[in-house]
Design brief:
The chain is mainly α and 110 residues long. The N and C termini lie far apart (90 Å). It is elongated and about 105 Å long. 65% of the residues lie in helices and 0% in strands. The longest helix has 38 residues. It is built from four helices and no strands.
């Protein structure tokens, strides 16, 4: 006859935790929480950096667009018949913006 060995121990086997383990766990949790909190000065610096990054990305995009338009105008100007088209494509203000100084970066100092 087969032996069916059933486990009749119905209480879970919970490992015992001593006080030093609990203190170490609490210190670890506290250190993690403190590392997640941000210093107000760091937060302000990160916000300023992200603003400057956004301004620089916008200026880079505008510069690439203007340079592409000028390059197209130069290529078209090689053909004498293309001069009339160049004047329609290239806005005279675009040349002035290329030569002018850009606006200063935004300054959040108060």
């Amino acid at each position: 006859m087969p032996d069916y060995g059933f486990n009749t121990q119905l209480t879970p086997n919970i490992p015992q935790t001593n006080i030093s383990d609990m203190i170490n766990l609490a210190r670890g949790v506290q250190g993690y929480q403190q590392s997640q909190q941000m210093n107000p000065l760091e937060l302000q610096a990160k916000q300023q950096d992200s603003l400057l990054d956004a301004v620089n990305r916008k200026r880079d995009r505008e510069s690439r667009e203007r340079l592409a338009a000028i390059k197209l105008a130069e290529d078209m100007a090689k053909n004498p018949a293309g001069l009339s088209v160049v004047n329609q494509i290239v806005d005279p203000g675009m040349i002035q913006r290329l030569e002018a100084n850009e606006d200063p970066l935004p300054n959040n100092e108060e």
